[in-house]
Amino acid sequence: MTRGERKTLWLGLAFISPWIIGFLVFTLYPLAASIYYSFCDYDVISKPVWIGALNYKDMVTDSVFWKSLGNTFYFAALSLPLSLIVALLIAVLLNNPVVGRPAFRTFFFLPSLVPQVAIAMIWLWIFNGKFGLLNYALKWFGLDGPNWLADENWTKPSLVLTSLWGVGGSVVIYLAALQDVSRELYESAEIDGASAFTKLWHITIPMISPVIYFNLIMGIIGALQVFSGPYIMFGGGGPNRSALFYAVYLYENAFSYFQMGYACAMAWVLFLIILFLTWAATSSTRKHVYYAGE
Amino acid sequence: MKHFLGRIAIYLLLIGGSAIFLVPLLWMLSTALKPIDQTMSMPPTWLPYRLYQQQAGGLVEVKSLEAIESPSALIQLPDAGALTVIPLQRMQDGQLKSTDALGAEILVPVKIIKEIPATRENPWSRIAVVDVAADDHEGETHVAAKDWDVVPASTLIHKTSFRWDNFTKAVKAMKYFPMYLKNTLILCFLTIIGTVSSSALAAYGFARIPWRGRNKVFVIALATMMVPFPVVMVPIYSLFRTLGWIGTLKPLWVGSFCAAAFNVFLLRQFFMTIPKDLSDAARIDGCGEFRIFLQIILPLCKPALMVIGLFQFMASWNDFLGPLIYLTNQKDFTLALGLQFFQSQHGGTEWHYLMAASTLVVLPVIVLFFFTQKTFIEGISMTGIKG
Fold first, then answer.
1. What backbone torsions phi and psi does residue A201 show, to the nearest 5 degrees?
2. pTM
3. Which domains are seen in chain B, by residue range?
4. I need a surface site. Which of A172, A251, B26, B315 has the fewest CB within 10 A?
5. What pLDDT is attached to residue B193?
6. Which residue would you say has higher pLDDT here, A287 or A126?
7. Chain A contact for B261 (CB, 8 A cutoff)
């Protein structure tokens, strides 16, 4: 390494030093400590005591753990595809040359700005069994709405509906991607007499597949860590713990029961699940994701 | 023709869809502006109203208590002095037999204030208070029994009227609202400064200084984005606890001075689009690297810095888990946590105050959005297209 190179190295490191400190203090050290704690009995007040893999073994027999995992998967399996479809549908609609497009875009986007806590408040009120707006609206269609928040079969669907209200961010992302799709592709397809659906399925979706893929991955990571909504709306998990989500149970273990070791073990299991699902999504969609220039 | 129908369908879907997306926000606002009895009316009322009755001296405001089915009696319960309406079922000894709210049959010795006879043409009447003092801060009305009267619904006049004072009442009911606001603003301010300055520095180091190994380090930086917060939550909490920072705002802003990978990534993309010649020319003029960063590159990157600052504002304003974990005294709460705390204490009944408080938390974000719409939309598109 020449003197100049060394000087550049130090200069570079000096500039990224805020990140280095953050990496060491808020990522690397916590990762190592978290692995260690996950093999310990740890309540934050006294020193951690090594107990081997007991936390992980306990997890296998902890029915609440499995319930929270199941609830979280149920939520993710419902909300991910629905959000994708709804967001894409709205984006495709908005991609038409309509009068007042910026206004429509704003209307769909606004709810995604609402803070989580306020979202929970608004929907608690809308889902209210007695005076709720939703069940009143359902009556117009002759439907007798369920008691969304008190019936264990409906707590998770109600959270899915809540999450759908916030798809505005994805809509904006999809819309930006749609606007980059070349007009020529559509024009030549039209000459060949392609229908609107054919164009959507064979041009639009393949062309924006990298963005869909990115949203899917971020969606998986986000959905498995959902916390604020269920925590605020259902506290300890709602009727029969039907809305006890993984992150909520993890939080309770850490800060209500002070079983920090168990919480760390749960966090690592979550991390592994996320890594696995990301890998699975990547390898199963690789063939279908189109990258320009490849 | 087919084309025309298609366009109609698109407009209908857009109008219907955006209505569905807007209704919850409008419902929040509508509820925030209602008195408590109108929050619990079925069918729901969208426009809050006041009721008036034509009397000799002109229009007199009437407070609606509830709609009742005649024949009924207005009674005063002896213990609390509360007024209530019951279906008329008189026992032989003159006592009233009633079904209370829980459905249990009870016998109550009560003072009958007024009996409401059945009328064929108007079976539903409204029980109302004429000429009463304003609500106290609890939203309950305290009146003497003689002020009560029963008014046939058909004689009431509706006038739209918004209860703007619900906002001041909600703020009072939340007790520490000004503190919540102050704490939230302090956090927004500090985290924006921290995030923008630290990520700009780090991004500059990754984008414009060709040091050996920077690409490898950058890959590590990107990889850290994969780590879910729960994994590092406990050790970071225990670290802050050792420092004695639990119950202070410090854990919520100190970390922002440590350049989050996501922001570094965004800014790096932006920095790399600026021609190298610009820096080289400055170097020849004897400019130091830090001056190039500060005086040449940063001014060119204002839009990207704005995006990051804006997103950080949103993140700090919305953050719930952080304050929930680290804050212990009610006076230190942020708006988000304070709102949830208020709901956990008053939830389930005072929906008008809860919605007014929610509106106060939502409104600043929406106002900010309208002033910075372009930056916002560009920023969101920017974050999504990197895929």
1. -75, -35
2. 0.86
3. 49-161 (no CATH), 174-346 (1.10.3720.10)
4. B26
5. 97
6. A126
7. yes
